[in-house]
Specification:
By secondary structure, the chain is of the alpha+beta class. The chain has one domain. Helix content is about 30%, strand content about 15%. The chain contains 4 helices and 4 strands. The longest helix is centred in the C-terminal third of the chain and has 16 residues, at about 70-85.
C-alpha cells in the first residue's frame, strides 16, 4: 500500500530538504536478523539511496542484493494526481488529526 501527501514548501530550508538527491539521502544498515531482535544498538554502516537503487550494496566485504519496495513511476503518477487535485481545489490541507507513530510507540 502506498500513499501520497503534499509537503508544504514554506521556506528555503524545507525546499533544500525536499530537493536532496539520491546520493545525499543515506540510511543505516541494520542487522535485523540478530542485533535488532536482541536490542543491540548500532549499525553496519550507512548506504545512500543511489546505492540501494543500484541493485546491490556491499556489507562487510560481501555483495548483498537490494530491491525497492516502491515504484518511482507509480510515485510520479500519484504526485501528478495530487498536484492536479490541489490545482483544481479538490484537495485541502488541514491541521494534523493525529501524530504519526514514532519508535517510542512501536517499542511499547
Amino acid at each position: 500500500m502506498g500513499f501520497g501527501l503534499p509537503i508544504p514548501v514554506l521556506d528555503e530550508q524545507v525546499m533544500a530538504q525536499a530537493a536532496l538527491s539520491d546520493e545525499e539521502i543515506t540510511y543505516p544498515i541494520i542487522d535485523y536478523c540478530e542485533a535488532y531482535p536482541l536490542g543491540r544498538p548500532g549499525s553496519l554502516g550507512r548506504v545512500s539511496m543511489a546505492e540501494l537503487m543500484s541493485g546491490q550494496i556491499e556489507v562487510e566485504g560481501k555483495k548483498v542484493p537490494t530491491g525497492g519496495l516502491a515504484s518511482r513511476a507509480r510515485a510520479r503518477e500519484v504526485a501528478g494526481e495530487l498536484k492536479q487535485r490541489i490545482a483544481q481545489g479538490r484537495f485541502f490541507l488541514t491541521r494534523p488529526v493525529a501524530p504519526l507513530p514514532g519508535a517510542q510507540l512501536i517499542e511499547g
